[in-house]
Amino acid sequence: TQLLEQSPQFLSIQEGENLTVYCNSSSVFSSLQWYRQEPGEGPVLLVTVVTGGEVKKLKRLTFQFGDARKDSSLHITAAQTGDTGLYLCAGSGLYNQGGKLIFGQGTELSVKP
Amino acid sequence: DTGVSQDPRHKITKRGQNVTFRCDPISEHNRLYWYRQTLGQGPEFLTYFQNEAQLEKSRLLSDRFSAERPKGSFSTLEIQRTEQGDSAMYLCASSLLAYRGGWSEQFFGPGTRLTVL
Lengths: 113, 117
Prior knowledge:
The complex is a heterodimer.
Chain A: E1 5-7, E2 10-14, E3 19-24, E4 29-37, E5 44-49, E6 55-58, E7 61-65, E8 71-76, E9 85-93, E10 101-103, E11 107-112
Chain B: E1 5-7, E2 10-13, E3 19-24, E4 31-37, E5 44-50, E6 53-57, E7 65-68, E8 75-79, E9 88-95, E10 107-108, E11 112-116
Parallel strand pairs in B: 2-11
Antiparallel strand pairs in B: 1-3, 3-8, 4-5, 4-9, 5-6, 7-8, 9-10, 9-11
């Protein structure tokens, strides 16, 4: 069974601080997606990483896919209150591309002014 | 271009009743997925379709759950004889799989929040 472990589960920081969220597995994934979810809404896709070692930047957010495609990280620089939300990583199985996503349990981020 | 839409957004029902949810995917997307999310957890896969064919069902999907996508466009998820444990957010997603063996991004709808009393 493929599992994705996210850490930390909860993170409360002050505006302007930096943070990193980790997503780890013992399994290899063909691609990995990061989503952000607000309460009562569906997840919104932030980025997809496909190649081992790949780094993608989205304004103050930096996403990295591990060389072995088993782990990923999300780094936020100078967090803002608008970054508050649930961050989810989700992987697509090595032999199931385009099929179901395996989700981590999420990281609840709270950025205080 | 509209995104994935789901109806209703909220449903409150009594234990033992049947409920049906609808999902309209992004128009050109050939794959449609159903997930369930409980509080404090990430979404869990239930089932998915390519066009009208149901390709995979999770063991989470008991006999009381059935999903259809009759014309390869919208999909319905029905839960019969609801139980309190069915209370959750039901999420629909769609994607365009361009070629066999390729990868695709899934885009989610706003979800249907089910409360079983």
